[in-house]
Design brief:
Mean pLDDT: 84
Keywords: ATP-binding, Helicase, Hydrolase, Nucleotide-binding
Number of domains: 6
Number of helices: 32
Radius of gyration: 48 Å
Protein name: DEAD/DEAH box helicase
Distance between the termini: 120 Å
Domain Helicase ATP-binding: 505-692
Low-confidence stretches: 541-551, 553-563, 951-955
GO molecular function: ATP binding; helicase activity; hydrolase activity
Structural class: alpha/beta
CATH class of the largest domain: Alpha Beta
Domain Helicase C-terminal: 814-977
CATH superfamily of the largest domain: Tandem AAA-ATPase domain
CATH architecture of the largest domain: 3-Layer(aba) Sandwich
Shape: elongated
CATH topology of the largest domain: Rossmann fold
Strand order of the largest sheet: 33-34-32-35-36-31-37
Strand content: 15-25%
Helix content: 25-40%
């Protein structure tokens, strides 16, 4: 038996006539036998290897299978019902044309593929070689011959196939489909590209068709005109000419089938119009000159048309269902789609005109200005302001740009020109100016911008005047200027600290406020003090008077100073940082006179203005500032500096409102976490520094907070970064690592809270008397326990009163400072080890950490799964805090993920502290480590710390001796409890 062969058979359908059907056949000895009719599901049959064109033929034929025809053209439940009830008119108008077009699709594939075509009787399953129908690879060419005489017009039709004429005879021809026409000619399937069978069939019976001249006018304007248009025609008695006419492309603004604005492209040849997708190749017009007929034939220039289409596509248009639209416009609202099209027209009108493309409008009753708007501007500087004078030209009309401000801010694209035409404001103007205009003030025909908006101006406006551009560059590059350090600075600044100082000095020179937002530990305080020392007034008023116990001058005697003297700078900070600032001023900038406007001391002050004229720096706390805001607001300060400026992140708070009332010539904020929870934190600080920089809070919420926080809008994010970049300097520790030593240690002195101080003083007095009494009665050796017990009790009070009595009502200055710094480190995404001698101290912190919902680890003597706890801290990026008791974590830990170490209750054993530090600062650590020791001011901790620093004999006896009580005297014990 032979191999399977795929073939197409021309066979009779019981209802629709001759159709193509696909079969698999197998050759026997002298004939072929049909194996089966092929359906698409047979492609899964592994018995036969299907070729792509065979699959295409099967799928095409399946489209007119009985079942598919029934579903397409009726709601009948069975095939027999469908054909029995099928209306003859519906069959002729809809069903038959559909079948015939699919039949032509099949013939087109057969013309170019090796698949054989057989003629098959419907009821027989055997086929023979003589049943094969040859399918020529080209279409047949019809040629019409017309001859006009005085009495009639005669015409003949000849058909040529591959250069040979076919003889048209009913005996040798059979029509298979009407339009387009497929004809069975002897043993060939003849296909015509456009000819309808009705034109062919008369010549099966006769050679010539005659039309009397009584109806020739109708005949010439109809049948002959269409024939001249679609086929090769040879004429005698009338003329056929190729028209010599102009051509142009017309782009018409209309609406598509969904009533959305779109372009319709038409190609115009004289009076004839062609759509790009039309298969019509020619057009013919008839002229009658007396008794003569002249046919003018217009042939389309498809190369030119294709060039026009490519130009439009290159400029951003895309064709869909015969309409041209901008790519991506389908997602726009209808009105926005219109604006985009008109903007596109305005942008490309000159080039369209250059290429002979005419633009017309058929869009409603409105007449749109189709040119482009030209913006001309001039800028100038005036003090702290930039003035922008701008004019927009729409053709012959000049419009002040300020008149368009409300249109751009409210997304109104249509602007009515004096002649009634509507100009569409370009999208580019909305993109470029909408983010800028809210910050401008209308001043007649100019718009006024504050200099702190210079980055937006530089980005938005082109053609800025040279003097304005120079000022832009001066502002932009302020941080790059090298500034000479003040000679009286008692510190060596690292490179990044010098850059920070220069940046702040540049802002000062330009009258702008800034936010120094370096990581914790990078010396923000020192950089700010360097700036204040650089700007220290050259002459200090001479004032005589006594100093108080804090070393501060008595301001309430003597002569008043010169009113013109530069006032002091007011620094507002958390209570826990007053001591730190005071110490750093004394250490690094001792020539700056400082006054601490805090606590009971401030009650003596009647006029803060007097203090401001005698001192360089006034330190105060947020609470004091809030309580005394009216007095402070009555004085102008040189600099108003906020440390830990996240304290004003809530713009509705009393603290923020009080600070906004305080007058200062310059402003600076210092923080490691300018954004803690929301972008509104940033707005509060930026608005304090440079009011109006980010607009109102409501505007900022609409323009930035919602798009960025809810929708992650990158464009708005970049715009916000552009606006604040000149005013925020943030360096992370890893960025300046080359300037840092591998280990940095700092002692953080913490003041006690008022209630804590009272309790401590009371307890210290009792312990002192108890110890002295015990030594008096029992001697030094027998009093060791009482002394150690007293020392431990005072240590606990210095840390937190709750270490002595659970849930004690008193607060702790040290605890507040530890937690404040911890908040900064968590926000900055650092990892910190917290060591304590007291497990109860760690538990207090743990309770507060839990309330913040921060991830943390804890290691004490009670911890059983040490490895799991350590692994969780090392490997979990969200776990940033490790609470460790000194006894449990002094050895055997490798915690190189941490880059900060807190020793929250240092004592007299430096070896234990060194071991704690080495948990992080050891081999494998690739980060620089900061170590903070927290010491409570005026406490037993501070006394021990001072002994360690002085390395006195008492320290040697009490710290380094195995049994200090054998060597220490009663007087030395009393010294500790003073």
């Amino acid at each position: 038996m032979g191999e399977l062969e795929f073939i197409i058979a021309l066979t009779e359908h019981r209802f629709v006539g001759m159709v193509f059907q696909p079969f698999l056949i197998r050759r026997l000895e002298k004939f072929y036998t049909v194996v089966r009719l092929v359906k698409p599901h047979d492609f899964e049959d592994s018995e036969y290897e299907w070729r792509p064109y065979e699959k295409e033929l099967v799928k095409t034929i399946e489209k007119y299978s009985d079942e598919r025809l029934m579903k397409r053209f009726s709601r009948a439940e069975s095939v027999s019902d469908f054909f029995s009830r099928l209306d003859s008119g519906v069959f002729q108008r809809q069903v038959l044309p559909f079948i015939e077009q699919r039949m032509m699709d099949v013939a087109s594939v057969l013309m170019l593929s090796p698949v054989r075509l057989f003629k098959k009787e419907a009821k027989y399953s055997n086929l023979y070689d003589e049943d094969v129908i040859h399918v020529p690879p080209v279409f047949a060419r019809p040629e019409f011959y017309f001859e006009r005489t005085e009495l009639q017009t005669r015409y003949r039709l000849k058909v040529f196939m591959e250069g040979k004429e076919l003889l048209l005879s009913k005996r040798t021809n059979r029509i298979i489909t009407n339009e387009p026409c497929l004809m069975l000619y002897r043993d060939q399937l003849i296909a015509f590209e456009k000819l309808n069978a009705k034109r062919l069939m008369p010549f099966f019976e006769k050679d010539v068709v005659s039309v009397p001249n009584t109806i020739e006018e109708k005949y010439y304007s109809g049948f002959i005109l269409n024939t001249v248009r679609d086929f090769d025609v040879k004429a005698s008695g009338f003329e056929i000419r190729e028209a010599d006419i102009s051509k142009k492309a017309v782009l018409s603004l209309e609406v598509d089938l969904q009533y959305r604005p779109a372009f319709v492209l038409r190609f115009t040849y004289g009076q004839e119009n062609f759509l790009p997708g039309s298969a019509k190749q020619t057009s013919v017009s008839l002229q009658k000159d007396g008794s003569s007929y002249i046919f003018l034939k217009t042939v389309r220039d498809f190369d030119w048309e294709e060039g026009v289409i490519k130009l439009l596509e290159k400029k951003g248009l895309a064709e869909l269902n015969g309409y041209y639209q901008l790519r991506g416009a389908d997602v726009l609202e209808q009105q926005n789609a219109l604006y985009h099209l008109l903007n596109w027209l305005g942008e490309h009108r000159d080039e369209l005109k250059k290429h002979g493309i005419e633009v017309v409008q058929k869009q409603g009753d409105k007449k749109y200005f189709a040119g482009s708007g030209q913006l001309e501007l001039k800028t100038q500087t005036r003090g702290d302001w930039f003035d922008v004078y701008a004019v927009v030209r729409f053709g012959e009309f000049s419009i002040p740009f300020i008149r368009l401000k409300k249109y751009i801010l409210n997304d109104i694209h249509e602007f009515v020109l004096p002649n009634g035409e509507i100009a569409i404001l370009p999208d580019e103007w909305f993109a470029r100016y909408k983010g800028l205009l809210p910050y401008g003030k209308d001043k007649g025909e100019r718009i006024e911008f504050h200099k702190h908006h210079f980055t937006l101006l530089q980005q938005s406006f082109e053609g800025i005047d040279s003097d304005v551009k120079e000022k832009f560059l001066k502002l932009k590059d302020a941080e790059k200027e090298e500034t000479v350090l003040p000679s009286k600075l008692k510190a060596s600044l690292r490179t990044y600290q010098e850059e920070g100082f220069s940046w702040m000095y540049g802002l000062y020179k330009n009258g702008l406020g800034g936010c120094l937002a370096d990581d914790m530990g990078l010396g923000k305080t020192l950089q700010a003090l360097t700036l204040l020392l650089k700007l220290k007034r050259s002459q200090q008023p001479i004032k005589t008077g006594e100093t108080d116990k804090n070393g501060q001058l008595d301001m309430f005697g003597g002569d008043a100073p010169d009113e013109a003297v530069q006032p002091a700078s007011l620094i507002v900070l958390p209570t826990s940082l007053v001591h730190n600032w005071s110490n750093e001023i004394a250490k690094f900038t001792p020539s700056l006179k400082v006054y601490k406007y805090v606590g009971l001391q401030r009650k003596k002050v009647e006029d803060i203005g007097k203090i401001a004229r005698f001192y360089d720096i006034i330190l105060t706390t947020y609470g004091t500032m809030r309580n005394d805001s009216e007095m402070l607001a009555a004085t102008e300060f040189f600099y108003l500096i906020l440390d830990e400026s996240q304290s004003i992140k809530n713009s509705g708070s009393k603290t923020y409102k009080a600070l906004m009332k305080i007058k200062a010539r310059h402003k600076l904020v210092i923080t490691g976490t300018p954004i803690e929870n929301s972008l509104s934190d940033l707005w509060s600080q930026m608005n304090f520094l440079n009011p109006g920089l980010l607009g109102s809070l409501a505007f900022f919420q609409r323009m930035f907070i919602t798009p960025i926080e809810k929708h992650a809008n990158e464009e708005q994010m970049e715009k916000l970064q552009l606006m604040i970049r000149p005013f925020v300097l943030r360096r992370k520790k890893m960025e300046v690592a080359r300037d840092l030593p591998p280990l940095m240690e700092e002692v953080r002195i913490c003041s006690m809270a008022d209630d804590q101080q009272k309790l401590y003083d009371k307890e210290k007095s009792i312990i002192r008397n108890t110890i002295l009494s015990a030594i008096e009665k029992e001697g030094m050796n027998k009093s060791q326990f009482v002394v150690l017990q007293g020392l431990t009790r005072l240590r606990q009070l210095a840390n937190h009163p709750s270490l002595l009595e659970k849930d004690a009502g008193e607060s702790s200055g040290k605890f507040d400072e530890i937690f404040r710094m911890l908040q900064n480190l968590v926000a900055e995404k650092h990892k910190v080890l917290i060591f304590s001698s007291f497990v109860t101290h760690l538990e207090l912190l743990e309770s507060k950490i839990k309330k913040q919902r921060w991830k943390y680890s804890k290691l004490t003597g009670q911890t059983t799964k040490r490895e799991e706890v350590i692994k969780e801290f090392q490997e979990n990026d969200d776990n940033r805090i490790f609470l460790i008791s000194l006894k449990a974590g002094g050895v055997g830990l490798n915690l190189t993920e941490a880059d900060y170490v807190f020793i929250i209750d240092p004592w007299w054993n430096p070896a234990a502290e060194i071991q704690a530090i080495n948990r992080a600062h050891r081999i494998g650590q690739d980060k620089h480590v900061f170590v903070y020791r927290f010491i409570t001011e005026n406490s037993i901790e501070e006394k021990i710390q001072k002994l360690k620093e002085r390395k006195s004999s008492l320290a040697d006896k009490f710290i380094n001796s195995n049994d200090p009580f054998q060597q220490i005297t009663k007087e030395e014990i009393v010294e500790l409890f003073k």
